[in-house]
Amino acid sequence: MTEDARRVFRLDNEVLAFRFTATVSDRGSTAPRDRLSDPGRLKLWLQAAGIAVADVSATDLGEAVALREALFRIGTAIAAQRTPATRDVRALNTAATVGQARAELVGDTATWRLTPTATTRDALGILATDAIHVFGGAERTRIKTCENPDCAGLFLDTSHGANRRWCSMNTCGNKAKKSRLAAAGKRGDEGP
């Protein structure tokens, strides 16, 4: 595989499940872009996420996209303080029970262990389990959606004052700052 995952995907979200939902760029825009355009792209993302699998089929891709969208809908519902749809929660719970991955402690880091013959369903089980821990955990109230209207990405606000507005300051926050500066510059150019 010759593509570099860092050039194809946003990998900066600290929550694995939310990083997976970010495989759709510009969700809030009129032209969202699905970066999981084929099974090879899913395999590349899984590898970059540290949950590589032996093979990915078109059926696997369909299951992954369905899970990704359920994760996004659940996350946005929780961020808006609404109850997630029952069908999405059912899909999440089912995906978590299908996988055969094991959690491991390596040094002081929790990680997932997959066998060399791990399937995509095993990897999806990891993503679902990660989401369950966030959606049902103590930090549930810190789930937010990015205030960049074109992005709308999910993130976990771990800031001290719980006042973070952007999924990433390096991307969406920086765009907002540049827009404000450009608008202020235009107002300054108009004169009194």
TrEMBL record:
<dbReference type="Pfam" id="PF11706">
    <property type="entry name" value="zf-CGNR"/>
</dbReference>
<feature type="domain" description="Zinc finger CGNR">
    <location>
        <begin position="142"/>
        <end position="181"/>
    </location>
</feature>
<dbReference type="InterPro" id="IPR010852">
    <property type="entry name" value="ABATE"/>
</dbReference>
<dbReference type="Pfam" id="PF07336">
    <property type="entry name" value="ABATE"/>
</dbReference>
<protein>
    <submittedName>
        <fullName>CGNR zinc finger domain-containing protein</fullName>
    </submittedName>
</protein>
<dbReference type="InterPro" id="IPR023286">
    <property type="entry name" value="ABATE_dom_sf"/>
</dbReference>
<dbReference type="InterPro" id="IPR021005">
    <property type="entry name" value="Znf_CGNR"/>
</dbReference>
